[in-house]
Amino acid sequence: MQRYLLHRLIVLGLSLAVASVAIFMVVELVPGDPASYMLGTGAQPETVAALRQQMGLDQPVALRYAHWIGAALTGDLGQSFTYKTPVAALILDRLQVSLPLALMALMLSVAIALPIGMFAAARNGRAGDTLVMGAAQIGISLPNFWFAMLLVLLFAVRLRWLPAGGFPGWGNPLAALKSLILPAVALALPQAAILARVLRSALVETLGQDYIRTARAKGLSRGQALRLHALRNALIPVVTILGMQFSFLLAGAIIIENVFYLPGLGRLIFQAITQRDLIVVQGAVLVLVAAVILVTFLVDLAYAAIDPRLRLK
Amino acid sequence: MIETFDLGVTLGQTMLLNRVNLRLAPGRITALVGESGSGKSLTGLALIGLLPPGMRTQGRIELDGEDILPLPERELCRIRGKRIAMVFQEPMTALNPLMTIGDQVAEALLLHQGLPRDQALERARERLDRVGLPASRFPLTLYPHQLSGGQRQRVAIALAITERPELLIADEPTTALDVTTQKQILDLLAGLVRDEGMSLLLITHDLAVVAGLADEVAVMQRGTIVESAPASQIFHNPRHAYTRELLKAAKHQPRLVLTRPDAAPLLQVEQVSRSYPAVRPDSGPGEQRLLAVDHVSLTIQEHESVGLVGESGCGKSTLTRAILGLDPIQGGQIRLAGQQVHAGWRMPDALRARMQVVFQDPFGSFDPRWRVEKLVAEPFYLTGRPKNWRDRVAEALFDVGITGDVMRRYAHEFSGGQRQRIALARALIIRPSLIILDEAVSALDVRVRAQVLELLARLRVKHGLSYLFISHDLSVVRQVTDRVLIMRQGKIVESGPTARVLDNPDHPYTRQLLAATPRLPQEIGLLSVENLSDGL
Fold it and tell me: Are residues A62 and A31 located together in one domain of the fold?
């Protein structure tokens, strides 16, 4: 186990290092530099040069990377030149919306997918399976912004149970949670459909294994064999998909954020790109990539928790 | 007491089992013998109520006088594991890889008897001790992957007997194991029958396995029991022609081919070593290396057939991979027809084309989406594909006895024996000098095995081939090799002419292997086969 953990930790550190260099270089390599963008096309060359010097852009690349990553490690991602505030604070602010939203959507998606996948696998090939998997197919095909608008029409406009959009901030936790419910449902549905399909096919394959027959010969019912033996063996692909979904939900929620007027990370990045606020883009991408790498690490740990063959190697 | 009365199984309109009558008395061992597809495993599954969906049963299965066939699933769950238990063929996959062996053995007790976990584990401990897995070396917290095949089969037996069932069904429990382990497992099963008074239904394709073990033998062919009698009668005085055929196949002896004295060495293996990092957790901390092949030297002459025998884990497969140039070696050298064998791209195609291999499981070594013509023609990439490659494929298939319109078919459409013939055709097509047969007949029924061995002998004469015949089964090696090498823990411990080694072994390990090999009652088996061979 120690060796596995150590190995994963080394991979984690290396991935982070490589990713940070890549992010730094991409911003570095795009034509033009932040200084000329900030000053616009009509700026005097001397003004640009002065700003470049002020921003430290005239120093060698390696040195600038060292400064940038050193500051980033202490939580300083630089100043946004559109918002005139520290980038780290901006991102942190947006994460207060995006992180809970992603987590809620993920939990919802698991809560929906788990029973559906198990139900379909237990009825493999029969009417219940076909019905549920057909519904899941529709869930995957449904554009989530359209589904989100339906949700708003029903729960906000007609029933008035939940707000139609906006985010009141965590000062009022109940209101904050309520404003995240509809977006989370809209995000979770297609993910749940994907997850249910993956779980079903993994379970169907596992149920054909010899050890399921052994379990049945021991006197376990079909359902017991599914819950006690097949489910855990089918979890590896499910956990893999979950990890990918979390990364997607964290930054890919931009359409849903727009439908519900949520100040999330996706919208921040979108706005920063349109305004060529490269410092914000760089900082946000760094945070996102770090999150993805961290989730991958957690997924690896989950594998080891599930499978003793990885743990005991 | 379990009895079946005219038990039948149908799938749609097809009758799979017909009028099977078995009487399984406490303390008795009944062997159910037949070739694959004869319906013997189906009988076992019908008895425990685990037939695949869609199959329908007829007749009665009486457990102490009560017919259990009409019982609802819930009642059957209470009988399974508790009164009727089953052990399956493949121990490597029969256990849940994510659960400790203790939990797996204790599970039935938790579910059936509602015992608290610690008591259930205590009972599991006692059962594991009983099957020869003592607490000192096999704590309950081990996982299946930390055990060998034989040890896993012991765990499977332990979990089958946790609740002291009245009937234990063992479906080919030793077919996947090597001879030494096979003997231990059979002894264990016999001991359990003796000590616990259960009845054992031992399902097998190999009559030799049940000789001296079974009280009754039922011989099954195409879903019916063709002969059922006390074991002594089956072996001494078989009535049915099919029983005689089975006995004859088990005693099969193809004609021997003698090597020409002037033959040149074809394969020279000199002081070859290969080691791996140890992976078993019980090997302790630090980087330990497992010396899988330890300074092995051997030579195969042209036209010679050499057997390599050892238990699983003795290094046979590692040596094979080294000879084939699939894995690098860490010491020594391997030469084929005077040219050095290297792993990887450094080995010229022309040299690779001089040796081919046939593995144990032909299904696993065929691409399921390729047609036979493409499968058999595959080695042509070493030599370049001739214009008349289709004729060559047909010729190779004809050589191995596969005829008819087969070129466009897929591997799954063939039986095990036919697949192994196709694998041979694939090896033959580029006319190699050496064919390595890695447990190539181990997965086959006795009768099919006899046919494939006959074919191997014929092909060797026809094409002047050399064989390296790898097996754990000494009786098979006796039939097809001129010389035999006995391998143990990475070393060759004994070698010599096959007849000499097998009849007069020097090394204690060879003697141990010979003692473990199942055999038909010697004189009687021979006698009856000779007497009856005219009638077949």
Answer: yes
